[in-house]
Specification:
By secondary structure, the chain is of the alpha/beta class. The chain has ten helices and 14 strands. It has an eight-stranded mixed β-sheet with strand order 8-9-10-7-11-12-13-14. A six-stranded parallel β-sheet has the order 3-2-1-4-5-6, sandwiched between helices. Helix 1 links the parallel strand 1 and strand 2.
Length: about 325
């Protein structure tokens, strides 16, 4: 399978996964020739600055879009028009109407569109989804999600302007997948300059509550830590994780019930490897698409609502 990988920034996270496989051929595309060649060379890929070739060259099967958010919807639609499958970094769009247009176009097409909802492939999150879907502990009544991080990625802003769309979207997906869209949302923020901040968002549902907290105010020695506590009628799931520069969390999930506490035995998994493996399986007709655009619309709507409350609270 031949893949056009657009973007040399976060595209390198996808590139590392492709480079470990022997069933794909990748060309990395970027605007700066020297920078693109250097990035592609780390993984043994060819490089190009002719972005049009990703769509016009009939040899490409999949276009992997790791470009700035305002370009996401436009480039997915362009890929579909060119008769190619598309994988796009989250969020799908920065406007819900654009996202809906992509979902509608994907539904009409015989090609697949995938949104990189990588958190769905984290075993700890899958344990939560399964517990909700199967009713293992009764109804979910309270969900608390938290992520506290230092500035582990040099040059990347983690201020209030970017945190909702680039850091909280995954939490919003977990919330909407387990509880749906909330009846009301309240937000509290803290800013330490333009590039560091914290957001605490509380959500009210009929008979349930959720909270999502994120902070980039932590010192380097802290690293990155996160997790969730899910309180059901008849038990609690409590997850904690730590994450380094490679974006691969390690952690545990403990179930607390009337019978006591026990740690769940979860499979080892790297969410990016699992996500891309899923994409390739679907393209080959070996699986059903679990990260299609239609499946992310509620999470995106809640994320955009939260972004407005944080950055345009008029």
């Amino acid at each position: 399978m031949k893949i056009a990988l657009l973007g040399t920034g976060f595209g390198q996270a996808h590139a590392a996964v492709y480079a470990a496989r022997d069933d794909v051929e990748v060309v990395m595309f970027g605007r700066d020739a020297a920078k693109t060649a250097k990035a592609a060379g780390q993984f043994g890929f060819a490089s190009s600055t002719n972005m049009d070739a990703a769509f016009e060259d009939g040899s490409f099967d999949l276009v992997d879009i790791c470009l700035p958010i305002p370009l996401h919807a436009e480039f997915v639609l362009r890929a579909l028009k060119a008769g190619k499958h598309a994988l796009v970094e989250l969020p799908l769009a920065d406007d819900i109407e654009d996202a809906k247009r992509v979902a509608e176009a994907a539904a009409r097409s015989d090609k697949h569109v995938f949104v990189d909802m990588f958190e769905r492939f984290i075993p700890a999150n899958q344990a939560l989804f399964d517990a909700v879907d199967q009713g293992a502990h009764g109804r979910l009544e309270q969900l608390t999600l938290w992520n506290l991080t230092a500035h582990l990625w040099p040059g990347a802003s983690l201020g209030l302007k970017v945190l909702p769309l680039e850091a909280l979207h995954s939490d919003m997906d977990i919330i909407t997948r387990t509880l749906g869209l909330p009846q009301a949302t309240t937000v509290t923020t803290v800013a330490r300059g333009a590039d560091s901040g914290a957001i605490d968002a509380a959500f009210r549902f009929d008979g349930a509550a959720a909270r999502s907290s994120i902070s980039s105010l932590m010192p380097q020695a802290w690293g990155a830590r996160g997790g969730y506590t899910a309180t059901f009628e008849h038990g609690v799931l409590d997850a904690t994780s730590t994450m380094g520069f490679d974006g691969r969390p390690t952690g545990t999930v403990t179930a607390y019930t009337a019978e006591g506490a026990h740690e769940l035995q979860l499979p080892a998994a790297d969410q990016y490897t699992a996500m891309i493996g899923h994409v390739l399986d679907v393209v080959r007709g070996e699986a059903d698409n679990q990260i299609a655009p239609a499946s992310v619309l509620d999470a995106l709507q809640l994320t955009l609502d939260l972004d407005r409350k944080v950055n345009d609270p008029r």
